[in-house]
Amino acid sequence: MIESLSAPVQATLVVGAILVQAVALYVGYGILERVATPLIETMTKT
Amino acid sequence: MEVLGLSLTLLVLFVSFGFMVGVLFGFFGMGGSFLITPTLLLLDYPASVAIGSGLAFYFGTSVIAVLKHYDIGQVDYKLGAIMFVVLSIGIELGSRLVFGLEALGIANFVTGVAYVVLLAGIGALFLRRASNLEDDEDDAGDVSDDEIPPVGQKIQSYSVPPMISLTAGGRASLWTISGAGGSVGLVSGLIGVGGGFIRMPAIYYLIGTPLSAAVGTSLFAGLFSGAFGAFTYGMSGSVDLTVVSLLLVGSALGARIGSAATATVDEDDVIVYFGIMMVLASAGIALSELANWLGTGALDLVSVLLLVGSSFAVASMILYQVVRSGGTDEPDTQPAPDRGD
């Protein structure tokens, strides 16, 4: 589907997709870290 | 079985390789794009796709690096904006050169040779640093983050108009900025690296800004030039979004662990292995080029093992030390500033 778009639009979508993915990964892994860190600390202390 | 147009093996390879690259470069404060492009070349991706995807990966890691330091330290925005323009011109020229070389059928060879030299050079620098660790410790107290290096002061003393005032003090010729930024951009566009490992020293030594401003300004200019690089190669459909996405999924997680590992693992203990890894990666690409020249695929597996295997080995070493330390937080090193390569 993306191939039917003009080159500048395709390229903009590529940059936008990477930007959105990077932000989502940063936020997602940040939440995961907050949840996982206390769990790991509890497990290593017991 | 295929997922997202890739075999399951490749899919697992990209996510796990991204993770290991993330661990390594989160630990050493770099982006790691200079391992992505040669790996894609070894996996028989066309040079333009390997370079375009490498730059797109770099852009993704830059976004994450900037979010991590959202007040990215001291930034000289005027210098950053000029750097962005000249970096982009360099990237555009570099990409045109790649497409020209591809038309001549020698793009993979030229890019491969460039990586042999680049990775061997970085490896040699790290090995040298490892052998001089004691001297570095002695010297560490002598350099202030707010000082302009003597080389930079010397270059700034040559007044070739137009001169630009730098936020952190001093003036630099637009010609110096254009020369330094344009050259780094050309290298980025030609071989698909973010170039933070040359951009930051170029801003620090050639343009002459204090170290603290050089790191922030390099990250700022790198973010936008990374986006421009991804856009330039995206225009010709030379960015494999699936590959970049898989690498980023692994890398974003690995970078968090690598960055956190600096609190429990001493960089000095692993720096020598990182240097050896770079030299092995360089040898892997050299073997691949040799195999192509001999017209045999017999060395392909050895090349991939050297490049990917050595990265896995060193990243596993860091992870092993984190697990062995068992959460005993004894911060003996400060996290390296993210230069976003």
Automatic annotation (TrEMBL), chain B:
<dbReference type="InterPro" id="IPR002781">
    <property type="entry name" value="TM_pro_TauE-like"/>
</dbReference>
<feature type="transmembrane region" description="Helical">
    <location>
        <begin position="105"/>
        <end position="127"/>
    </location>
</feature>
<feature type="transmembrane region" description="Helical">
    <location>
        <begin position="172"/>
        <end position="197"/>
    </location>
</feature>
<dbReference type="GO" id="GO:0005886">
    <property type="term" value="C:plasma membrane"/>
</dbReference>
<feature type="transmembrane region" description="Helical">
    <location>
        <begin position="48"/>
        <end position="67"/>
    </location>
</feature>
<feature type="transmembrane region" description="Helical">
    <location>
        <begin position="301"/>
        <end position="323"/>
    </location>
</feature>
<comment type="similarity">
    <text>Belongs to the 4-toluene sulfonate uptake permease (TSUP) (TC 2.A.102) family.</text>
</comment>
<feature type="transmembrane region" description="Helical">
    <location>
        <begin position="7"/>
        <end position="28"/>
    </location>
</feature>
<keyword id="KW-1133">Transmembrane helix</keyword>
<keyword id="KW-0472">Membrane</keyword>
<keyword id="KW-1003">Cell membrane</keyword>
<feature type="transmembrane region" description="Helical">
    <location>
        <begin position="271"/>
        <end position="294"/>
    </location>
</feature>
<protein>
    <recommendedName>
        <fullName>Probable membrane transporter protein</fullName>
    </recommendedName>
</protein>
<feature type="transmembrane region" description="Helical">
    <location>
        <begin position="203"/>
        <end position="231"/>
    </location>
</feature>
<feature type="transmembrane region" description="Helical">
    <location>
        <begin position="243"/>
        <end position="265"/>
    </location>
</feature>
<feature type="transmembrane region" description="Helical">
    <location>
        <begin position="79"/>
        <end position="99"/>
    </location>
</feature>
<keyword id="KW-0812">Transmembrane</keyword>
<dbReference type="Pfam" id="PF01925">
    <property type="entry name" value="TauE"/>
</dbReference>
